[in-house]
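Hello,

Our lab assistant flagged a job as stuck in the queue for most of the afternoon. It eventually completed. Since we weren't sure the result was trustworthy after the delay, we are filing this so someone can double-check. Below is the sequence as submitted and the structure that was eventually returned. Let us know if re-running is recommended.
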Amino acid sequence: MIHPACSVDVSAASFVSVESGQNVTLLCKEVERFDHSSKIWVWYKQRTAQEPQEVAIKLGSKAPGTSSTRFKIVQSFNLTIEQAIKDDEGMYFCAVGEGNAISFSKGTFLAVAGQPQLNISVLQTPVWGSVTPGEPVTLQCTVLSDVKAAGLPVLWFRDAAGQSFPEIIYTHQKTGSHRCEFSSSTNSCMYNFSISNFSQSDAGTYYCAVAACGRIIVGNGASVTLV
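-- returned structure --
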C-alpha cells in the first residue's frame, strides 16, 4: 500500500455530480503524462476530515484490484463506479508511482445526490453579463434554507470552454472575512464572489453550490463573457 508523502493541490479540482444508483467514470489524466508500464497506479478517495483511502491499485502488468466489486478500472486507468451510493461521495485522486516518486492528479470531487432531505434553494444573480477586459466583476449567490443558512458550506465552480468538468475556484469558510450577509426574516444568506481584473481566462459560467446532508445543491449559473 502506498502512503502519500506529499501535499496534493486541490485548487483546480473538478466536480462531478451523479444520482444515487447511476454509474460514473472518473478520468485519470496522469495516463497522458506517464507510460502505462509504470510500476504502480493508484486511485485514492478522501472524505472530509478523513485520511485518504486506497480504492484501486494496479501493479505493473498485473490485473488491477479494487476495494469494492462496484469499482472497475477501464480504458487505461480510469475509474468507473457502478450504482453509486452516498458513501462513494468524496474527493478522488489518481496517482502513479515510479521509483521513490509519486505523482498525483488534481482531485475530482464526486457528489452523489439522493432524495431531498432539506428545503434549500440557491439563486444566482446576475445570470448573464458581458464586461470589458480589466473590469471588476461581482457575482451574488443567495442561499435560502429551512435550517440556518449561515452554517452551510458554499463553493464556487467555473465551467469554461475546453474543460472536461467544472473546476472548484473558491470555498466560503464558516468564519473569517468572507462570511455571508445573513437575513433572519427570510433565513437566507447572500454570498459575493469578486474578480478584480477580469480577463479572457476568467470567462465562463460560474456556479454557486451548497453542501448539505450529503447533497450538493447547485445554483442556476451565471455566464460572464468579454465584450
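-- support follow-up --
The delay was a queue issue, not a problem with the job. The result is valid. The first strand starts at residue 14 and ends at 19. DSSP finds no helices and 20 strands in the chain.
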